[in-house]
Amino acid sequence: MAADTIRWEQDDTGVVTLVLDDPRHSANTMNAEFQASLAVVADRLESLRDTVRGVIVTSAKKTFFAGGDLRELIQAGPEDARRIFDSSMAVKRDLRRVETLGVPVVAAVNGAALGGGYEIALACHHRIALDAPGTVVGLPEVTLGLLPGAGGVTRTVRLLGIADALLKVLLQGARYTPRRALEAALVHETADSHEELLAKARAFIDAHPESRQPWDTPGYRIPGGTPADPRFAANLPAFPATLSKQTAGAPYPAPRAILAAAVEGAQVDFATAQTVEARYFTSLVTGRTAKNMIQAFFFDLQAVNSGTGRPGDIPAREVRKVLVLGAGMMGAGIAYACARAGIDVVLKDVTAEAAARGKGYSERLCDKAVDRGRTTREKADAVLARITPTADPADAAGCDAVIEAVFEDTALKQKVFQEVQDLVAPDALLCSNTSTLPITALAEGVARPADFIGLHFFSPVDKMPLVEIIKGGRTGEETLARAFDLVRQISKTPIVVNDSRGFFTSRVIGKFINEGVAMVAEGVEPASVEQAAAQAGYPAKVLALMDELTLTLPRRIRDESRRAVEANGGTWLPHPAEAVIDRMVEEFGRTGRGGGAGFYDYTDGKRDGLWPGLREHFTRPGTEVPFLDLQERMLFAESLDTVRLLDEGVLTSVAEANIGSLLGIGFPGWTGGALQYINGYEGGLPGFVARARELAERYGERFTPPASLVERAGRGEPYRDR
Ligand code: NAI
């Protein structure tokens, strides 16, 4: 096997620079070649121990080191456990050999060092990060359902103490810029240039000829103590509680494994801790959740961002100046997202005051970012200077894109486009942020329907990473490509869907909510419904979410849908949720949080508890619905509808379906998305189909698996894009 992914460069002063530079891949990963190279390097360093004065580890790639080889990890099954364990132990052993050589080893981190990359840096005595865009450090394994298996748990616990290692690094998987990494003691120094980086590395070697790690120094104790100390032990029970809060009881094995590896590892010597870590690592890698999460958050996300939904043969274009129509909640957020990405923004509302209020939103976000040290005042001011609030349509001149976010009203939306369409650039991209109105019909009201497209943002825009692009019946391919490029320009993730009522996200989240409300209709305790959503891993409880969206909105959409079905000669089949929503609105006047009362009570807009009347009027004591059914009904309702959307051609790829469900509507992350959930269900697709039939029998037709799914299960073919 080729062992040439680490280049050895020795100068005449006895300093060896190890250059991470995998010749076969664009990024350095912990693949088999790297492992072989590491072993060779460790041998060579040991044999030249007397002539080597110090070691610098740096990279020739854009990223310092990308981490584990996910292509390989995702394929590992239970039968590979031995191999995974051995390879984790081999990397640890070789890093440890370099760490204990007795000569100073410095990590000159000149690019992203996440996961395995930061673990390599942790094995070095001194870490210097190049303070440049793109350099980040951290251990984000938990976000892929994994734990750092190359010494990351063992060393962060010994570097920071158990509590800080867990809370700052391991459990959130946070990524640190060089400056923040310095504050958090994850690196020792930063450097402003490559030259300075290497000079500082050499200076460290000169000043510390016999460097060793703190944990290899006599008298060393883990900062903050270990579970054996009575003081520490008193706090220990808080950790599982924190963890439960974080995962709400949902099946995320990684945080638990990390906690266990950290606590157990702190009570034993370094070598044993490494073995403990490798054992937990192996159990996660060979399990199902890591596969789901790697598939979705790495492979699907990468595919979607690099163009799954974009026509490939159209050259990329950038937007320079955007007109945002409507400076309300959404318009204000969209203006901020665009300005942050360096786009000039004209933010128009009916009055100058309303427009200025919209800009005020960006001012608040910028102030907060400066306060928290996430940006400088100068940069924040530059963002704000890009936003021009106005009530004057003439300011639209020269804009090469329009994003409309006025009230949800077809006539009004068409009117505001007509007002500006002759003022903006003649080929300006025309986008509507409507959340429910069909794009094809809206486009009828503008002069250039081929340039018209839906751009559905999510609230709050600055936090939500997804944008759903909706292609109308007359939307041109070039328009689609430009809309896609605009979404990428503002660093969001675009999924592309064909026009349909509720598009993808609004329609599917509606199934989730309706299912929760249907349980209330059946007489299930409302608190159990909420608990089921939380334990299934949904970020929002179902009835609380309904209150946020208001109860009147789904009624209106339902009435429109019913009219459409009936106009077509069809029969409307009412969903069991409808009667509850109607009574809530008509009989009790409870329309949701906006109206001050809904499934919950509110004081000054803050949620108190579930409305006691809910139990009184709807709950039937003795209603026995198994808890697992409550959870799976929500998951199945959404997954099954996602399959129907694929069948209907609204969705056109599996990756977009998974990413849209995860980033847009809070489908639980451990599943890997609404279609990956079906792939990963116990028993695979046939298991899912059998369970769907069971739910259909117990709870209604809506769970009957679509024919396409049954056929796919018969072929044994999971949902995957080619
Ligand atoms: P909003 O009520 O906060 O803001 C609407 C703004 O449009 C107001 O500031 C209003 O003064 C302004 N406006 C009305 N007529 C105008 C005109 N002729 N010219 C310029 N401005 C005008 O509403 P919000 O929540 O921002 O929603 C806007 C759009 O975004 C709607 O179509 C909504 O369906 C959609 N949307 C909303 C989401 C949400 O979570 N609220 C999520 C995704 C889409």
TrEMBL record:
UniProt keyword annotation of Metal-binding present: no
Matching InterPro entries: 3-OHacyl-CoA_DH_NAD-bd, 3HC_DH_C, 6-PGluconate_DH-like_C_sf, ClpP/crotonase-like_dom_sf, Enoyl-CoA_hydra/iso, FA_oxidation_alpha_subunit, NAD(P)-bd_dom_sf
Domain 3-hydroxyacyl-CoA dehydrogenase C-terminal: 502-602
Keyword Cytoplasm among UniProt keywords: no
Residue spans crossing the bilayer: none
Pathway membership, UniProt: Lipid metabolism; fatty acid beta-oxidation; Lipid metabolism; butanoate metabolism
One record GO biological process: fatty acid beta-oxidation
Residue intervals of the 3-hydroxyacyl-CoA dehydrogenase NAD binding domain: 321-499
Molecular function in Gene Ontology: enoyl-CoA hydratase activity; long-chain (3S)-3-hydroxyacyl-CoA dehydrogenase (NAD+) activity; NAD+ binding
Keywords: Fatty acid metabolism, Lipid degradation, Lipid metabolism, Lyase, Multifunctional enzyme, NAD, Oxidoreductase
Catalysed reaction equations from the record: a (3S)-3-hydroxyacyl-CoA + NAD(+) = a 3-oxoacyl-CoA + NADH + H(+)
Similarity remark: In the central section; belongs to the 3-hydroxyacyl-CoA dehydrogenase family. Belongs to the 3-hydroxyacyl-CoA dehydrogenase family.
Protein name: 3-hydroxyacyl-CoA dehydrogenase
Taxonomic placement: Bacteria, Bacillati, Actinomycetota, Actinomycetes, Kitasatosporales
